[in-house]
From TrEMBL:
Example of a GO MF term: coproporphyrinogen oxidase activity
Binding-site residues, a divalent metal cation: H126, H136, H170, H200
Pathway per the UniProt entry: Porphyrin-containing compound metabolism; protoporphyrin-IX biosynthesis; protoporphyrinogen-IX from coproporphyrinogen-III (O2 route): step 1/1
Main localization category: cytoplasm
Protein name in UniProt: Oxygen-dependent coproporphyrinogen-III oxidase
One Pfam short name: Coprogen_oxidas
EC number: 1.3.3.3
Positions of the catalytic residues: H136
Matching PANTHER family: COPROPORPHYRINOGEN III OXIDASE, MITOCHONDRIAL (PTHR10755), OXYGEN-DEPENDENT COPROPORPHYRINOGEN-III OXIDASE, MITOCHONDRIAL (PTHR10755:SF0)
Keyword field: Chlorophyll biosynthesis, Cytoplasm, Heme biosynthesis, Metal-binding, Oxidoreductase, Porphyrin biosynthesis
InterPro entries listed in its UniProt record: Coprogen_oxidase_aer (IPR001260), Coprogen_oxidase_aer_sf (IPR036406)
Family affiliation: Belongs to the aerobic coproporphyrinogen-III oxidase family.
Region (Important for dimerization): 290-325
Amino acid sequence: MLKRLVRRISGKAEPAAARNGVTTMLAPPPADSRGRVKTFLMGLQSDICAELTRLDGEGCFLEDSWIRAEGGGGHSRVMKEGRVLEQGGVNFSEVEGDQLPPAILNQRPEAAGHKWFATGTSMVLHPRNPYVPTVHLNYRYFEAGPVWWFGGGADLTPYYPFLDDARHFHRTLQEACDSVDPAYHPVFSKWCDEYFYLKHRRETRGVGGIFFDYQDPRGVLYRGQDPTGPAALASAASGTTQHDWEKLFSLMQACGNAFLPSYLPILERRAGISYGEPEREFQLYRRGRYVEFNLVFDRGTIFGLQTNGRTESILMSLPPLVRWEYRYEPRQGSREKLLYDEFLRPREWHSDKQLERTCAAFGALD
């Protein structure tokens, strides 16, 4: 009984033979599942690139199409040296193989020995202006023998943060989740804080967003690594959530389509703020945290490298310029110190009046 409870809270996979010796099988996905997901994700890639090109006004996305020897391929679109975007990549991939890597099998051991298929769109944008946050998006779909699942999310990484930007980003993603099921966002927002956490720095990568993985009809929302953390507790409190392939595909669509309205207003509002060399140097220093996370912890990077993916596409998430500084300490009373003290930890962004007063005092409210 205790083992079942731990599995339920932690999201670790049940063995193939479920309780009382009855084998639990997932309902199969629709016959056209792969085509439908591929069509949506490629459309999402195109829509995002078109809007970013329009907004930047100078840069353009160059596309590399590639083929993976073991099966599948993809299309990588990268903008370099734009007016607003110093570098941004928006990728689509569709790959398959005979053996899943340890990064997946540790979570879904029942997929072992089956041919697998994975498709996804991933994006990281590194703006030129330090007052514009870096942003990340990834939505993906897997099939492996009798199992399938959806995953993804988006998160915001500011350098000189504004409370209204964090609130807008979170509110837009919450509305997307709630349009499918109000049970999703309380778990996925906490899971994002947990996932995008640099353990060796004891700080979050940014102000969060949403993150989910291994979502299938079994209905346990949290399937992460901390069975006693806030996301696990929120999942346990919500109980089993009824969803099938169509509902989870709707979740992917709603969240993917929410990206442009969640980020473009922030980019447009902050891109014209004047900055100097100190702000630029701090931006490059904080970009180092992005590199550290993506190379040490990021599940997509690990999966891509373990499955012999295209290295250039996998590592397009890294910024073009970055720096490290030994024993850096932000100055007391500075905007840089505000980032460390108030924004690099899980928060209740919408109702914290003290946070409002603090941000207002720094000119970081709106």
